[in-house]
Predict the structure of Thymidylate kinase.
Amino acid sequence: MTDRSGIFITFEGGEGVGKSTQIRRLADRLRRAGHDVLVTREPGGSPGAEAVRHVLLSGAAETFGVRMEAILFAAARNDHVEEVIRPALETGAVVLCDRFVDSSRVYQGVTGNLEPGFIEALQRIATDGVMPDLTFILDLPAEAGLARARRRGGSDAPDRFEKEEVDTHEKRRQAYLDIAAAEPRRCRVINAGRPEDEIAEEIFTLVETATEASVAAEQVS
Ligand SMILES: Nc1ncnc2c1ncn2[C@@H]1O[C@H](COP(=O)(O)OP(=O)(O)O)[C@@H](O)[C@H]1O
Ligand SMILES: [Mg+2]
């Protein structure tokens, strides 16, 4: 493990729950408070990973099976971690990432029917010890999230994941809640069915608490 002084925060949840919206708002607010903030996303976030992103979201990888797809996600994640996330954390930045390991657990693991052991082995390699300090799981009924994503959609055709059935999305929602229940120290479930401002306020307060705790821990060590 490297010496980390930054804080790593991930945003998770289904399509249209408000991840991008809340990341933007949190980044603005943290910057105004004087923090150095890096906003990034998966799949992608580094040149190597962005190259793989297109293969994943176009559905080209799906043709070769869910294992192949999961391995490509992991390859992209490892590049992203080593080239972007870890270096930023080492400079003390707050890193906000749109999707990370929990998306693999939920999308390829639960709804892709990959064995948990296979997924976890990939995550160990992909993250190489860089796990989020805090994960916001934005929770919203699948139907509502999909409706939002469609409204946002504009001219973009739905990607490979947006096209799937509502019950698949609902299964993912439950899988996220299961992760949150299993890892309560890292994960916070956020009711995403409320007004944007209210959600932003709750998230900012939780992040402030976490950054204060991490500063206090550094002063002790
Ligand atoms: N709390 C909210 N209430 C209503 N609409 C929202 C809320 N948060 C985001 N939206 C809208 O829903 C759509 C999807 O939000 P977005 O942040 O892109 O979701 P995600 O990144 O999780 O897919 C956007 O059009 C956004 O403006
Ligand atoms: Mg988004």
Summary: The beta strands are 7-12, 37-41, 94-98, 134-139, 187-191. The chain has a mean pLDDT of 92.
